Amino acid sequence: MSKQFTPNNPLPQEAPVPDEIATFSEAVEAEIDAHLAKYPLKRSAILPLMFIVQRERGYLDKPGVAYLADRLGVRVTDIWEVATFYSMINTEPVGKYHLQVCRTLSCKIVGADKITEHCKSRLGIKPGETSEDGQFSLSEVECLGSCGTAPMMQIGFDYYENLTPEKVDELIEQCRSNQLSNGVR
Amino acid sequence: MFIGAIGCEPLQLARVQLERSESLETYQKHGGYESLRKVLGGMSPDDVIGELKKSALRGRGGAGFPTGMKWSFVPKDSPKPKYVVCNADESEPGTFKDRYIMERDPHMLIEGMLIAAYALGSKTCYIYTRGEYRYIIEIMDRAIAEARAAGLVGDKILGKDFACEVYTHSGAGAYICGEETALLNSLEGLRGHPRMKPPFPAVAGLYGCPTVVNNVETLTAVPDIIRMGGEAYQKLGTEKSGGTKLWSVSGHVNRPGVYELPMGYADMEKFIMEDCQGIPNGRKLKAVIPGGSSVYIMPASDIEGKKVTMDYEGLVAAGSMVGSGGFIVMDDTVDIFESTKNLTEFYKHESCGWCTPCREGTDWLVKVFKRIARGEGKPDDAQLLLDLCDNIEGKSFCPLGDAASWPIQSAIKKFPEDFRRHLAPLAGGNGHKSLSTL
Ligand SMILES: Cc1cc2nc3c(=O)[nH]c(=O)nc-3n(C[C@H](O)[C@H](O)[C@H](O)COP(=O)(O)O)c2cc1C
Ligand code: SF4
Ligand code: FES
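ok -> structure tokens follow
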């Protein structure tokens, strides 16, 4: 017979384990201090700090979130609330090289689809996926302010413009041989 | 890509082609920070605002609100700190002018912000830049450091009793953060949802304090206005649209780029066919979206032979708007149903989810577009799209809802045949009643 759980006979609970908190080098801490110094309210630094955490840890993981909550004096939920709003904040791991192809109109009418298709076939992944070896992620993103030099994509933070399938091949080749910066800063 | 002025002396683009144009040295060699010197050397804040009013400068971020008037709304006697915030979010599809201003002439923006700060009694400026423009933030940070080392940012600027800090701030990928109140929430470390207006930012903005939010191109016009005087600046353009304007030209033209044109430039057809060197591959012009994705689409027939003048009044008369000046040119290979679907997907992706008409409505719009594209539409679907727009436009919390509706409404009105082509087979020919209204 199954046991009845009532307020007087609650579910057995394990003692809550406090979140593991990320730690960073002195240089990174100094960089974080410099951002915090810009604002009268610490919370304003939330996005700049998220970028730093995700650069250092690959993505915004739980220990990273716990660190931010602690550093900014807000609740863990406040951090998640913001993290899930912004498309550039990764709450899941992404590949070393994150290819982000612009899909919006100015790029679309000069061949963005061809670029995306080419990336898909060369990498064997679809937009939204990461390759099994963790080297590549592919995304379709909205206008990146590069419409005059379309089609284009961003790898990490770096812009690659006036793309052709041949140029994409070259870039992917350079990524495969680790000769290209992954544009994470 | 072309960057330069047509039909006027380059003003905002005066230095972009110079070697090391981003350096303080180049900027100062070409008159840089002289306007700030002039302001601190004897103009009162009211004098500065007066020149802005005379200049007929209208905000370049999209809404075209007169800048001098916006500045005059900031309560002078408020004991709270005041903020100047530069809107460098630049996410409106088709728009890329701010990027090149900051990349090539960052000090022009710093000088413009400092003059604004002086006029408004502010000691702190933030440049809110879209997160993807990381390299631009790095350029701005270097320029700010250079200006600080030269006594142009910080305490006792130019040895005068004026202190001001300028900081960069990064967004993280959200179009809605270009809307000024969403931007302020984002800058406060919150989700980028818009705020109720009023109160307007000039009264209660960043941290609840009086705040002026201006676009990059607006603020970079300020040094020239001070240098030449408001009246002379206005005369470069028209009575109601002063000065020059940057147009980001993309799509099917032989020479895309950033074009600086005097306000009132005539005419749009000449601009496309001569200045932008026409349509590639001998194709014909089909349509133009002149002011970034959020404005009404214009068919070639509203442009060719119509002498459309390129300023706020001229574009409204021609059935569209200046918006952000993101000028997207489409040739006759483009299916306007497809192009409108593409933009609708953009708005669905960027709807911040705060209010129901826009959050649910853009989702529905995309669903209907997709089923039509799959060949599974219903004969009444064009009308359904219009009904959905009707329930979003004017009924949403912020202008993004309108911005999502206008492209669809104008596309169905101006290019009914492109929608009919997708729907006619479903209706069993052209005879269906809903198609006859197309
Ligand atoms: C959805 C939406 C997006 C916007 N995006 C931008 C933008 O990227 N850059 C900008 O300067 N203004 C943008 N605006 C306009 C701003 O809300 C605001 O009007 C502008 O920054 C004011 O500056 P201005 O007077 O100098 O134009 C946007 C408005 C809306 C409704
Ligand atoms: S109209 Fe759209 S973007 Fe604006 S508040 Fe509503 S959901 Fe957000
Ligand atoms: S539409 Fe692709 S960068 Fe603007």
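The mean pLDDT of chain B is 96.
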